[in-house]
UniProtKB/TrEMBL annotation:
Belongs to the ABC transporter superfamily. The keyword Nucleotide-binding applies. PANTHER family: ABC TRANSPORTER, ATP-BINDING PROTEIN. SUPFAM superfamilies: P-loop containing nucleoside triphosphate hydrolases. The lineage of its organism: Bacteria, Bacillati, Actinomycetota, Actinomycetes, Micromonosporales. Keywords: ATP-binding, Nucleotide-binding, Transport. It comes from the Bacteria. It comes from Actinoplanes derwentensis. Residues 2-228 form the ABC transporter domain. This is ABC-2 type transport system ATP-binding protein. InterPro entries: AAA+_ATPase, ABC_transporter-like_ATP-bd, P-loop_NTPase. GO terms for molecular function: ATP binding; ATP hydrolysis activity.
Length: 299
């Protein structure tokens, strides 16, 4: 279990992380979502004891990272896939990690295979690895000590769709065995398929958090009418503000039944009425982070 309790980090006058609190439970994958510069990496670095918080605290299994003996046996960390020694082979990287943790290096070959690094790949130097291969090695490195908790910063970065699908299976299996996963991304689509829970951050502050399905269900209703004036009449009747969606429909922040009833009562003919789901979550994400630096936010 990861507990983040009122964490704040300031750099001069800049609040990189501002009073952030959340927990990640065993058996779940939590997606930590936000645009570039939102404060995800800084929060993760504070959890891992690499950046001292200005205030607040973070614990893993109730203990601050610095106080964990042999931390790699408790928590697997992947903060920067390119941080591995470029001159070492994949096998050497994992063997050194195993030795540092006092583990038998006999596990290395199997662990490399588990992340898809087979054939010639384990014997190649990391400098010759693609970003996707580095991410796979980083995951094997994080998991070599059989930790109960994984903290992964943008692990899907550089993976192709097949690779993301594979990673989903790997992390799902880890969580189903009781593990706790926190992974960050600036791409909603990436996290959406992997995570059970979402924590959305913008400008250092938590914007929303909760169960992914609940957030999806609360994401509103997409409505389409032949006449734009009709939708305005409907929104006015409901006392709500709609958001034009990219596909020409309008996102209404209410559940489909309420929108249908209001449309019938006001005599508005609807061409389309459907739960917004993932599309709505994306609209919500963009809306919530609209005040943030949106560089890099895409599908
Ligand atoms: N060592 C540092 N010194 C000064 N400012 C920093 C430092 N580390 C991070 N920041 C600032 O803190 C803010 C949050 O950065 P952080 O890297 O945590 O964001 P992020 O959400 O991980 O973004 P990205 O997706 O781009 O990695 C940014 O404005 C960044 O410039």
């Amino acid at each position: 279990m990861i507990t983040v309790d009122h964490l704040t980090k300031t750099y001069g006058a800049h609040r990189a992380v501002d009073d952030v609190s959340f927990t990640c439970e065993p058996g779940t994958v939590t997606g930590f979502l936000g645009p570039n510069g939102a404060g995800k990496s800084t929060t993760m670095r504070m959890i891992c004891g690499l950046t001292p918080p200005t205030s607040g605290r973070a614990t893993v299994g109730g203990v601050p990272y610095q106080r964990l003996g042999n931390p790699g046996r408790h928590i697997g960390v992947l903060l920067d896939a390119s941080a591995q020694h470029a001159g070492r082979t994949g096998r050497e990287v994992l063997a050194l990690a195993a030795m540092t943790m006092g583990l038998d290096t006999a596990r290395v070959t199997g662990r490399l295979a588990r992340v898809g690094l087979t054939g010639a790949a384990p014997k190649r130097r990391v400098r010759a690895y693609s970003l996707g291969m580095r991410q796979r090695l980083g995951l094997a490195y994080a998991m070599i000590g059989d930790p109960a908790v994984l903290i992964l910063d943008e692990p899907a970065n550089g993976l192709d769709p097949e690779g993301i699908h594979w990673m989903r299976g790997l992390l799902r299996d880890f969580a189903d065995r009781g593990g706790t996963v926190l992974l960050s991304s600036h791409l909603l689509r990436e996290v959406e398929v992997i995570a059970d829970r979402l924590v959305v951050i913008g400008n250092g502050r938590i914007l929303t958090q909760g169960d992914k399905e609940k957030l999806l269900n609360a994401a509103g209703t997409l409505v389409r009418t032949a006449d734009p004036a009709a939708i305005q009449a409907l929104l006015q009747r409901m006392g709500l503000t709609g958001t034009p969606s990219t596909d020409g429909s309008v996102l209404v922040p209410a559940d489909p039944r309420a929108v249908g009833r209001a449309a019938a009562a006001s005599g508005v003919a609807l061409l389309e009425l459907r739960p917004a789901g993932a599309g709505g979550l994306e609209e919500m994400f963009l809306r919530l982070t609209a005040g943030s630096d949106l560089e890099g936010v895409s599908r």
